[in-house]
Amino acid sequence: MPGTLVAMPGVPPEGEPVPADGALPATATREVGARGFGVYVHVPFCASRCGYCDFNTYTSAELGGGATREEYADTVLAELRLAARVLGDTPPPRVDTVFVGGGTPTLLPADDLARILDAVDRTWGLASDAEVTTEANPESVTPESLKALRAAGYTRISLGMQSAAPGVLAILDRRHSAGRATAAATEARDAGFDHVNLDLIYGTPGESAEDFARSLDEVVAAGVDHVSAYALIVEDGTRLAARMRRGELPYPDDDVAADRYLAAEAALGAAGFSWYEVSNWARTPAARCRHNLLYWAGGDWWGLGPGAHSHVGGVRWWNVKHPTAYAQRLAAGTSPGLAREILNPDEAHMEDVMLRLRLASGLPLDVLDPAGRAAADRALADGLLDPAGHAAGRAVLTLRGRLLADAVVRDLLP
């Protein structure tokens, strides 16, 4: 289905323990940042839980002591100090990207988001051209807060629009009005943000083709330079999944999702956007999300916050999920890391193929084994890979290939 991401290799439920001091193997820190270095900050707070969301987020009523918004920035800074000690003599040459996600990061005061960014800069140094992104719900920002974030050094904002149709927003349990996302995008541009993204979700039960066309029209009219569009995925344990099990709503339809993806490609392409990853379009190369490109290209990043994942030199680890447990570990002077895994060459290759094939730049054919190259030849014959890209030695998805990206990946792997 378009807009989905191939499942990553299963993370062991327990992994191996993270040392109390968070120390990494010397082999992992030898060339930190050789492929770029980013910082991800997870802010777990939401004003309410959307019906489709299974992210590691919490409303105020779900949290206990030690995990309040007022204390959160200081807790994140404690993990940043631990990170600085872990990398110690082998710090990254610079921080290329910072991405503050959630949750709703902009439920924190702009001053707290500014303090976190300043601490990252003082710890490792921001590159002069660093991309600094925050996610935001449209109702959680104002012209004043946006100006404060821009003045603090944030260069990019990603707003959760999801749809322009009131009925679709109601099914998704979104709190903002139908026009608020595009108004917030205009306010962000007026505040001086270099890049503004709007997120869309398509394939929601009850969404008509006209609803999605209107959403695309409003995104284009908002003047943003980046659009992300994802097929609705119904995750177990969410309110939306429960409603579907009870028969209150139909399950998403794959054919409808494919039609919506084709509509997005047509509308955004006509407006001057180009795809650079299966679910992401940008007006210019400079508008592409560099932080996500860092992930897809196998770079290094440190994830701060409860449930955040990190990757340095082939070692991936993940923090405890609950904000209270996260705060308690840091208060005790120990790593919040829950477990980690060290990727072996086969796992690293699998992830490389999964992620790079989704990019418009494609995957070098010479990284595939003979069976994979034979599969690429078959995909070319089936119209799933681009002939010009193949002739240049790369596997590049065609539009039809993007619709079947997961299947293409499976065929290319052993």
From TrEMBL:
Keyword 4Fe-4S: yes
Alphabetical list of InterPro entries matching this protein: Aldolase_TIM, Coproporphyrinogen-III_oxidase, Elp3/MiaA/NifB-like_rSAM, HemW-like, rSAM, rSAM_sf
Swiss-Prot/TrEMBL keywords: 4Fe-4S, Chaperone, Cytoplasm, Heme, Iron, Iron-sulfur, Metal-binding, S-adenosyl-L-methionine
Ranges for region Disordered: 1-21
PROSITE patterns documented for this protein: RADICAL_SAM (PS51918)
Gene3D superfamilies in alphabetical order: Aldolase class I (3.20.20.70)
SMART domains named in the record: Elp3
Domain Radical SAM core: 31-274
Subcellular location field: Cytoplasm
Membrane-crossing segments per the record: none
Keyword Cell membrane attached: no
GO cellular component: cytoplasm
GO biological process, one term: porphyrin-containing compound biosynthetic process
One Gene Ontology term of the molecular function aspect: coproporphyrinogen oxidase activity
SUPFAM superfamilies referenced in this protein's UniProt entry, alphabetically: Radical SAM enzymes
Family affiliation: Belongs to the anaerobic coproporphyrinogen-III oxidase family. HemW subfamily.
PANTHER family in the cross-refs: COPROPORPHYRINIGEN III OXIDASE, RADICAL S-ADENOSYL METHIONINE DOMAIN-CONTAINING PROTEIN 1, MITOCHONDRIAL
Function, as annotated: Probably acts as a heme chaperone, transferring heme to an unknown acceptor. Binds one molecule of heme per monomer, possibly covalently. Binds 1 [4Fe-4S] cluster. The cluster is coordinated with 3 cysteines and an exchangeable S-adenosyl-L-methionine.
Protein name: Heme chaperone HemW
Organism for this UniProt entry: Micromonospora costi
